[in-house]
Amino acid sequence: MVVKIDQDNLARCRQQIEQVSGLGSAEGWTTADFERLSEAILEKTGACLSVTTLKRVWGKVRYDSSPTTTTLNVLVQYLGYPNWHDFQHQTDRPSTVVNTLSTPISDQPPVRIGWRRLPGRVVLYVVGIGLVGLLALMLASHERGPLSPQDFSFRSRPVTQGIPNSVVFDYDATASPTDSVFIQQSWDPTRRKRVSRTGHQHTSIYYYPGYFRAKLVVGKQVVREHDLLIRSDGWHVAVLQEPVPVYFSPNEVIQQGKLSLPPSLIEASHIAMQPQPPVVRYRYIQELPGLRSDNFIMETRLRHDYRAGAAACQQTRLMIHGKNEMFFIPLSAKGCISDLSLGLAGHHVDGRNTDLSAFGVDFSNWVDLRCEVVNKQARIWVNGRLAYQATIPSAPVDLVGITYEFAGTGSVDYCRFSRPDGSVVFADGFDRAIQ
């Protein structure tokens, strides 16, 4: 059982994450919000906490045990602390007082202001000024109303191909009534930078390829936003960490007809495989002409290649990227399916209350995965067996790529996207003909 101070610290941790993530109070969170938080934690810490794990921490699903130390460490690392122990004792640290006087602080007599000694007219004068100022502030805030997007401009352009990539933002926010002007790289509020109200350019580095929704924010209002596609220029291979991931050249990992980053190559880059296995990501971002989220077929063969220590569950996630929509297809060792969560462009389920046992596999062999969507009817096959089906609830969007993520590392034998009529739009057999 967690002691009282631990419960208090856990509540404090949750509250800070709700604020930092920009998602607000967790009372109204949906599964999609937990997906977003999982992604943000992964981007910031390089560690993957499943949607189910996050729901347990927030009490959205019943779970009688306490969060593990590993989970707690990852949560507070998202907040900038090195570990849970430091976070717990943060409130116990005495605040530092800077003494700018020559007399020691302990020797200075306290200074008390006696309101009874002040003339009555002075007190009334001070109170009156305060009330007038407060009233003026309330009236100004009430009269301001929402800002018009037509009064602002916001554009962007990447400076090169591939990753990392700097993006130049051209903006005009001179109509802002406040100096609180920000440019946000994507939906994630932690990727937000304050800019000058009178300035007109800002540059930002994108360390991962992907589809982003860049925003110009004034105060708390998004006044302008637009699509931003950072292409991968082929396969982008990285081990996730903050602030900069560790990149690997495709020439190092595409060999003998497969895409594979071996543990030896990871360790050669001074990245430990234990006690917390790294997250390896293979990502391909590029327009897929004619493919939309309501009609497409994706076929692939993949394998998780590491199961030592904390990687025993062999957590694997495949993501199909659309403009403002995502497909999340999980795989794991058979005994770990309770931690899985599945997302199909707005349709979400998790393994705590849905049978996802068909996504538990034997990774000692290659796993064949097929995702087929025809007229919004989605079906997923794992090793030739229908594993799940659902109706896509969201409006169709263009598809722009695919991601493979492994807690540890893994391999991909081939990847193929086609239309429902069988015509191939994209295929990569990694220098070997697809059988």
Name the features.
435 residues; alpha+beta; Immunoglobulin-like; Jelly Rolls; 3 domains; nine-stranded mixed beta sheet; eight-stranded antiparallel beta sheet; 24 strands; 21% helix; 33% strand
Brief overview:
With 435 residues, the chain is of the alpha+beta class. It has helices spanning 4-21, 31-45, 51-57, 69-78, 84-88, 120-144, 250-253, 263-268; strands spanning 153-158, 165-172, 181-184, 192-195, 201-206, 210-218, 221-230, 236-239, 246-248, 254-255, 258-260, 279-285, 296-304, 316-322, 325-333, 341-344, 347-350, 360-361, 367-374, 377-382, 385-391, 399-407, 410-418, 424-428. Helix 2 (31-45) crosses helix 4.
Description:
- The chain crosses the membrane at residues 122-140.
- The chain contains eight helices and 24 strands.
- Helix 2 crosses helix 4.
- It folds into three domains: 4-90, no CATH class; 149-230, Immunoglobulin-like; 236-428, Jelly Rolls, CATH 2.60.120.560.
- It is globular.
- The longest helix is centred in the first third of the chain and has 25 residues, at 120-144.
- Strands 8, 9, 12, 14, 15, 16, 17, 18 and 22 form a nine-stranded mixed β-sheet that branches. Strands 10, 11, 13, 19, 20, 21, 23 and 24 form an eight-stranded antiparallel β-sheet that branches. A four-stranded antiparallel β-sheet has the order 4-3-6-7, with no helix packed on it.
- Mean pLDDT is 84; it is low at 1-5 and 92-117.
- With 435 residues, it is α+β, with helices and mostly antiparallel strands.
